Fold this protein.
Amino acid sequence: MAQDHDHDHGSGHGPAHHPGGAHDHGPHHGSAQSHGHGGSHDHTHMDFGQMLPMLVQEAELFTPAYLQAAEWLREQRPDPGLIVDAGSGPGVISGLLAEKFPGARVVAVDGAETLLAEARARAGRLGFADRFSTIEAELSEGVGDLEYPADLLWASRSLHHVGDQRAALTGFVRSLAPGGTLALLEGGLPTRFLPRDTGIGRPGLEARIDAVHDEWFTRMRAELPGSVAETEDWPALLNTVGLRHTATRTFLLDLPAPVSDEARAFVVTALTRRREGLAEGLDAEDLAALDRLLDPDDKASVHHRSDVFILTAMTVYVGVKPE
């Protein structure tokens, strides 16, 4: 977003495009966790709870990449006793972490009780409710009151929704046990859904949408309470707050054409959010192209075309707290 493209806590926030873990970020936004709203964006008053269906849709679709990340984290930290999902959204990634670390307790932390309620229901459905709990807390204030320090803290596209990211990271570190691991998912690459030339309007539509989104993201960050400008050198930032940066890895989500009905539905959702949230920054020709691409009665729309795909990359930075 700056450059977290799509989005999103384990859910995601925003109009844009972040694969969410939870939060969509951006005016889509595309994650999962990803939260966000279309229209004019005041990130300080976004109601991520209203985005529940989209957050779940996105996080479930992006599960293959999140599972790769969880497998990799298991190599970094094989036996955590307590895992915290900071900015958990509806708990899709919390569930994946519970699956990959069957001996761990999992605590989901989010500022939206509606999303935490969904996370608890999900834990019940998937059979790990006996080792799962939630804490309602704003990440600007840390992760709330844990019964004991975390061995693994996962934050997926949630940090960039906090004005003072360094202060939030410092709070995360306080909640880690000595030797504990912080896994921060930020950045990566914008999500792509279409070929450069779709046959509608000028080629390069998604690149222009990305440019408008980046401007939106910069404004969103500046308008957050207590906003502090921060160079997005995540390894350096981890070191600054007292961790030892130990690894960085990027995970690819590649859903080639022809896509499933679920993937196609997500593309419709994501492009609709971008159309609504970024309209002021796009020119008339690009808006007209988006309108055609989103028109279910148009055979050239993403509802029908055979060349729709989903391709993105998500980067995870790992830091370890000194013993």
Notes: The longest strand covers residues 244-255. The radius of gyration is 18 Å.
